[in-house]
Automatic annotation (TrEMBL):
Pfam families, per the entry: COX2, COX2_TM
Span of domain Cytochrome oxidase subunit II transmembrane region profile: 1-91
Top-level taxon in the UniProt lineage: Eukaryota
Record's cofactor remark: Binds a copper A center.
Gene3D superfamilies noted in UniProt: 1.10.287.90, Cupredoxins - blue copper proteins
SUPFAM superfamilies registered for this protein in UniProt: Cupredoxins (SSF49503), Cytochrome c oxidase subunit II-like, transmembrane region (SSF81464)
Domain Cytochrome oxidase subunit II copper A binding span(s) in chain numbering: 92-225
Naturally occurring in which organism (per UniProt): Gordionus wolterstorffii
Subunit structure, interactors included: Component of the cytochrome c oxidase (complex IV, CIV), a multisubunit enzyme composed of a catalytic core of 3 subunits and several supernumerary subunits. The complex exists as a monomer or a dimer and forms supercomplexes (SCs) in the inner mitochondrial membrane with ubiquinol-cytochrome c oxidoreductase (cytochrome b-c1 complex, complex III, CIII).
UniProt-recorded name of the protein: Cytochrome c oxidase subunit 2
């Protein structure tokens, strides 16, 4: 659970999302430093009694404010390229699930098994219990084994949707007639929530994603019950 009233990013639940969090904090450190430096310079100029109004140029300062942005951008470029490579790198999946968006529910098909195909609708308020979350829980969870590389093939039956899971830093548009793939590997047992992130109609806000990560043994037992 995040402190500070939840104004920061969610707790990350995969290696790739952790890389993105580190990159975010790395970039924010530069932004904070630049902001403080600019505020200090403005304050110094405002309260200074010795304004250099007659100075025609300052070669050293011009050199530094030209060089420093280059150094900052280069230092941010290398970790950014690494994170992009990790996001786009194609893995050999141990499990493949086809995710189909529709107005206004999700359909999950476990392609590696026979006859495991079900729809997932938002749980109505009248059916919620104390352990469930309003507007985010669903009647059928997307069940995944943790520490297993999973490929999600995302598409849509009608309009454009967007499959989004913030704790995994995943967001993929579900476009009719197009198959898009994303890879994920939960690192521990958890229940993670997401929502459709593309306005898809009047009930767009009532199209949650509820992912449940369990052990491989529990997953095998769950498959046998289907």
């Amino acid at each position: 659970m995040n402190p500070w009233l939840g104004i920061f990013l969610n707790d990350m639940m995969s290696s790739t999302s952790e890389y993105l969090l580190i990159l975010h904090e790395f970039a924010m450190s530069f932004i904070a430093g630049i902001t403080l430096m600019v505020l200090f310079m403005f304050t110094s100029i405002f309260f200074s009694k010795k304004l250099a109004l007659k100075t025609p140029h300052a070669n050293l300062m011009e050199f530094l404010w030209t060089l420093s942005p280059m150094v900052i951008l280069l230092s941010m470029a290398f970790p950014t390229i690494k994170v992009l490579y990790c996001n786009e790198d194609s893995h050999w999946p141990d499990l493949t699930i086809k995710v189909m968006g529709a107005q206004w529910f999700w359909n999950y098909e476990y392609s590696d098994f026979e006859n495991i195909n079900f729809d997932s609708y938002m749980t109505q308020e009248t059916d919620l219990d104390s352990s469930q979350t309003r507007l985010l829980d669903s009647d059928n969870h997307l069940i995944l084994p943790y520490k297993i590389m999973t490929r999600l093939i995302v598409s849509s039956n009608d309009v454009i949707h967007s499959f989004s899971l913030p704790q995994f830093s995943l967001k993929m548009d579900a476009t009719p007639g197009r198959l898009s793939q994303i890879f994920m590997m939960p690192k521990k047992p958890l229940i993670s929530y997401g929502q459709c992130s593309e306005i898809c109609g009047v009930n767009h806000s009532f199209m949650p994603i509820c992912l449940e990560s369990i052990s491989i043994f529990d997953f095998i037992s769950w498959v046998k019950t289907k």
